[in-house]
Amino acid sequence: MLCELSLTLERERPAYAVHGNMLHYVKDRFLRQLDFNSSKDVAVMQLRSGSKFPVFNMSYNPAENAVLLCTRASNLENSTYDLYTIPKDADSQNPDAPEGKRSSGLTAVWVARNRFAVLDRMHSLLIKNLKNEITKKVQVPNCDEIFYAGTGNLLLRDADSITLFDVQQKRTLASVKISKVKYVIWSADMSHVALLAKHAIVICNRKLDALCNIHENIRVKSGAWDESGVFIYTTSNHIKYAVTTGDHGIIRTLDLPIYVTRVKGNNVYCLDRECRPRVLTIDPTEFKFKLALINRKYDEVLHMVRNAKLVGQSIIAYLQKKGYPEVALHFVKDEKTRFSLALECGNIEIALEAAKALDDKNCWEKLGEVALLQGNHQIVEMCYQRTKNFDKLSFLYLITGNLEKLRKMMKIAEIRKDMSGHYQNALYLGDVSERVRILKNCGQKSLAYLTAATHGLDEEAESLKETFDPEKETIPDIDPNAKLLQPPAPIMPLDTNWPLLTVSKGFFEGTIASKGKGGALAADIDIDTVGTEGWGEDAELQLDEDGFVEATEGLGDDALGKGQEEGGGWDVEEDLELPPELDISPGAAGGAEDGFFVPPTKGTSPSQIWCNNSQLPVDHILAGSFETAMRLLHDQVGVIQFGPYKQLFLQTYARGRTTYQALPCLPSMYGYPNRNWKDAGLKNGVPAVGLKLNDLIQRLQLCYQLTTVGKFEEAVEKFRSILLSVPLLVVDNKQEIAEAQQLITICREYIVGLSMEIERKKLPKETLEQQKRICEMAAYFTHSNLQPVHMILVLRTALNLFFKLKNFKTAATFARRLLELGPKPEVAQQTRKILSACEKNPTDAYQLNYDMHNPFDICAASYRPIYRGKPVEKCPLSGACYSPEFKGQICRVTTVTEIGKDVIGLRISPLQFR
């Protein structure tokens, strides 16, 4: 089989610069110019030859029509830049080759129309003029790269941040945390900037306030700003968009990587790998819809809803997530989805329409629950009727005081031969005679007699008494102290639904109303007729017969001027002069009049806000979202067996809320403590975490003590508990991240070593091969990274075993290592004696599978060495090493992760997502 291997030997990304409608780019040692409007592509200048490295980047000066071309050598100290002035009258067939001014420097960037800045090989900043002469030197903070940031300003890059620096005033203006920025792309008005790293994008405003962070699993290639303020960027195989609020998504896929130069309308202008200009078409509907929603341009939202094919689960989910289920409600046609959205935003009317269309019992039950919460007992009644829930229907009639319908329910129960329901309704109504009849009919003669006698129905009681057989039946005694239990009579039956809060109309309903009902009225009604018909209805005194006179009485038959004729009673001056600033548009006054009740949307719970704001597993556990927490642990550290995590999950979740009692008669209420409580606000909270790194470090000391006293199995369990707890930490800085990773390493070394020691002690010692295997495992243990006190114990064990096996040469090395650790005097004395004996006969009696001079890792499953250069698989959490045949199995160290699984990596700090 033949395989083709492709290696990129030269830098793929072309050097280019965009200004207005022109693109300048370097191709085949020529500087070319592309007019976006006319697609005219010409070579304007031939570049100076001599450099064996391609042009790294370009900075264009439109004022002087000059360019700076930077070349980055493999040895950075040999990097150079060239300053060219582009000829005004270029011959595209035979372009000139003007002499450029070449100097050494890592990067050169224009900072004014006749000045540019150079970062030299010593990482200091030089300001030069158009003659390539140094005009001044500027002291800047430590940096390894510079980027353009507008006239007089630069962006300085260091290891983990970008700094905005004022060259003229020589001071730092702002900074933002992001590591290893590769490219900086400013919007046309310089109001926003996108900072592109290898796998991350940070969008900031002019003051470098971070507006959003986007993490990509695939390398970010390029980007450009859309004219509407959306950042369009490319990865190796996708064109994507990012809105400044953090929303991002895929626009289309790519066959090969491209480098975006400009975005306008539906067109993406770009250069491919061969540096050929291309134009790709995209569909901007999705991000323009989200942008209009974010910017509250509701007319555009309505237009897109009506004219674009936006219907899709992703858009519906987005609207629900952003708190606009009522928007999705107006363009979703599927009745089931409409029903769910209507319930979510509390729109009972639309939910009722959808329920009628679906006519599903489950839908009626859900609608009944939501309607009951709103106090809409009329719809609750309908739902109970549709589901034939007679018990709840009877109770509803009881609590609303509707005795007439309650009697009908009693009759229905009798027809259905539902004795229990029949009797229950009789109890609700306080109908004693009916209860006696029911008990009598169902054969409960004694209860029927007691009921009649106790409630004073003497005739009925006597007739029942006569039916008793004195010889076989005993007539029950009547309690003389019995008290009457009668349901209270409803004083004010509830005929209407519970009153609700008056809330303002939602924007979407308002837009529809203004475009529909309000717009139609404005077009069809003559303003001159308003005083007759519309106001006339409110003015008529339609009074009843309780002594009040009808409005027409006293005015006469012609009081309103017969028909629609205007009378002279209204003394209105139509030509009143008003100041021009009080001019009001015709539709402005109708907003408050044509509104109807819109229920308030249900807010987002604090636990859901926690999940939305964090990608750390512990935050999802504290929020109670175990499923997403498991998904994050699976993706980040490869957990596939969650049984051992059950107790940790429950303990962590128990710390997520506080509880307090407001009133004795009410259930306890919950509080949701935030760790960023100072700036959490309503939507930016993340939960307070009870488990701290210092807690695990303190628990580590107990593990050390157990190891010292030889309780290996207990120590392994404690080490494993610490190891599994590390992914549930939240730390604030890189030092703590490093300490947490070091803690994992310590736990892994001890778990592997102690597990191997436990296994070694279980091995039999009868044969020579078994003894050799015991010595090998003891020798491997000496290569674990342990505390000195424990390493002394391990070396003593290995020394004794090898001395007994008569492998004196290897035993001597263990003795020397032991003495270097400075053991107790009595131990040192015994070790010197053994060493002296070994040096007299420095040979090994038996050949073992152990080479102390060849570095190796210990396979945590087979406890055999994996020497350097051999294939190895690792646990994604602990880093424990395994032979390739164990790939895909459960890690022996963690007992929860999959060996060799490809994962994102441990994430315990928000810094790791920047």
From TrEMBL:
Native organism taxonomy: Eukaryota, Metazoa, Chordata, Craniata, Vertebrata
Membrane topology according to the record: Peripheral membrane protein
Domain COPA/B TPR, residue spans: 313-456
Domain COPA/B second beta-propeller positions: 31-272
Residue stretches making up the Coatomer alpha subunit C-terminal domain: 505-914
UniProt keywords, alphabetically: Cytoplasm, ER-Golgi transport, Golgi apparatus, Membrane, Protein transport, Repeat, Transport, WD repeat
Any one GO biological process: intracellular protein transport
Cell compartment(s), UniProt: Cytoplasm; Golgi apparatus membrane
Name used for this protein in its record: COPI coat complex subunit alpha
Chief localization: cytoplasm
GO cellular component, one term: COPI vesicle coat
GO terms for MF: structural molecule activity
Natural source organism: Aotus nancymaae
InterPro entries: Beta-prop_COPA/B_2nd, Coatomer_alpha_WD-assoc_reg, Coatomer_asu_C, TPR_COPA_B
Keyword Cytoplasm assigned: yes
Record-linked Gene3D superfamilies: 1.25.40.470
Signal peptide: none
